[in-house]
Specification:
With 151 residues, the chain is an alpha+beta fold. It has 6 helices and 8 strands.
């Protein structure tokens, strides 16, 4: 068992409460500042800071097409370094979901499961919002992770 897994799972309620605090934050590529601007990765980073007090790691600068350019599962690899990977069918509120926006591509979008039927995420052109986890999104889940931490 890894050190991160041995410390337990952060409270799903605390993660959802933190995520809901970001609702309305404008979209801004590469940002992670509540009420100022964020992208999907910045949202997850901001919630991590609220739960753990500091960033797990600083991501390098990335373009909007970084996934297409690299072909690497960069988001999944980074999540595996800091979160506890779980089977997506076992995801609970407060867990991070990673998505492949098109079949055969790498995962490049993230959201927080808020309820059994909704997620909180940041999408270009829209502020952070809680939206239905519709079948379109469910089909695109590539991986799921729990925040580590005492529960």
């Amino acid at each position: 068992m890894s050190a991160k897994a041995s410390v337990g799972r952060a409270s799903g309620e605390a993660v959802v409460r933190a995520a809901r605090g970001w609702i309305g934050t404008p979209y801004h590529h590469q940002a992670s500042m509540k009420n100022i601007g964020t992208d999907c990765l910045g949202l997850v980073r901001g919630i991590w800071r609220e739960i753990h007090g500091s960033d797990a790691e600083m991501p390098p600068a990335y373009s909007r097409d970084w996934a297409e350019a690299s072909g690497r599962e960069t988001m999944i690899e980074a999540a595996r370094r800091h979160f506890v990977e779980i089977d997506p069918v076992l995801a609970r509120p407060g867990d991070v979901l990673l998505f492949r926006l098109r079949p055969g591509t790498v995962a490049k979008h993230a959201g927080i499961l808020a309820t059994a039927t909704t997620m909180i995420h940041a999408m270009e052109g829209r502020p952070v919002a809680e939206v239905p986890l519709a079948p379109w999104w469910r089909r695109r889940i590539a991986a799921a992770f729990s925040f580590p931490g005492g529960e």
